[in-house]
Please model this.
Amino acid sequence: MSTKENAAISQLLALLEARYALRVLWALRDGHAQTFRLLQDSVGGITPNTLNTRIKELREAGLVSHGGDGYSLTVSGQDLLKRLSDLQAFAGKWQLGQVRKAAAPPIPATGASAAPGSAPATPPGPAAAPGSQPPSPSSPPSPIPPVDGAD
Model:
């Protein structure tokens, strides 16, 4: 990447990193103009002073405009959000991964503590049902416990 490209990306990221800037843009993504008060409610938790500052910065950057109906995205603002549209799909997948990661039991460390030639210790767990096969050592444990039909 050229120095000019790096400078442009740095400048855009600096604008978007400002507190609530992306939330303001995201609140306007549906294309309907919003009054100041409605925009404040849509963003949630933003003070009027901070919202005024973000709107001013986003208007100066050419991403937000103000008309008779309220605030809305400019063509450039719409283009930016189109380019960020994959963020919602990514966020859903990422959040699901975080939930699974938090629910998964910790994997015990192996290596230096085991004696050479000895089998790795098996973590304590429920006894296997008679006639059932133990899980394959290469497959990770399921984060969802099996449902026991006998109540």
Remarks:
- The longest helix spans residues 86-103.
